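BUG: 3D viewer hangs when loading the predicted structure for this chain

Environment: internal workstation, default settings.
Expected: structure renders.
Actual: progress bar stalls at 90%.

Input used:
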Amino acid sequence: MRSSEWISLIYFGAMTVLSWCRPLPAARRLQIAALGVPMGAAILWVARDGSSWVRDWMPVAYILGAYYQSGRFFVRPSPAIEQWLMSWDRRLLGDPTTRFAKWPAPLLAFLEVAYMGCVVLVPAGFALLAATGRAALADRYWTMVISAELGAFVPLAVMQTRPPWAIERHAALPDRAVHRFAARMVRELTINANTFPSGHVAGSLAVAFALFDPMPWAGGVCLLLAIFISLACIVGRYHYVVDVVAGAVLALIIYGIVSAAGVSS
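C-alpha cells produced before the viewer hung:
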C-alpha cells in the first residue's frame, strides 16, 4: 500500500474506534462507523485491485469522507477554548468584525473566491502533476496533502469549537453579495464546526509544498493562492487567527517529515 493509503486507513479506523471512547450519542457513533468502515474497506480494495488512475484520484474522496466523519464528533462547543481563540483575534485585530470594513471591495471579493476555491486547489495540484507527466509522484503529493488535511480534522474529536461567524455579529464587509454567497455555501456545505488547525490553510499550503520540488513555478503560484486563502479565513471570519497559524505550522511539519522520509511514488 502507498503511504497516503496507510495514513487514510489508520485515520478512519482510529476515528471509528475513538467514537466509542468519547461521550457521544449512539446515533453519532453509528454515523461515524457508517463512514469509517466503508471508507476503510474502499481503501483496502482500491489498494489491492484498483488501477493506478483510480489510486491516484481516490484520495480526493478520502479527504472528503474524513472531513464529514470528523464533523459527527461535534456535539457541544467548549466556551473556554472559544474565548481563548477569540481573545487572540481581539488582541491582534481589535474588533474582527469591523477590522476589514474599509478594505477595497474587489480585493475582499477576490479573497472570498480564493477561500471557496480551496476545494478545487487540492485536486488541481495533482492534475498539474499528471498533465505534465509526473503522475508517478502521486503518493508523495497525496501523503503531504492528506496528512495535512487529516491532521487538521483529528483534533475536532476532542477540541470542539464553533467558527467565528457562528458566535459573533456579522462581519462588516463591503463585498456584501460575494460574502453572503460564500457564507451561505459554508453554512450549507460544511460541518459548521471549527477545525483547529485550519484545514483550508494546512491543505492549501501542503499543495504548494508538494509541488515546489518537481514544479517550482506551480508551487510558487499555489503558495500565493494559499496565502490568499489563509488571509480570507481571517477576513471572512471563517477561522480564528490561531487556527491559521496552526494550519501553517502543521503543513510545514508535514513537509519536513515527508521530505526526510523520502516518500517519492
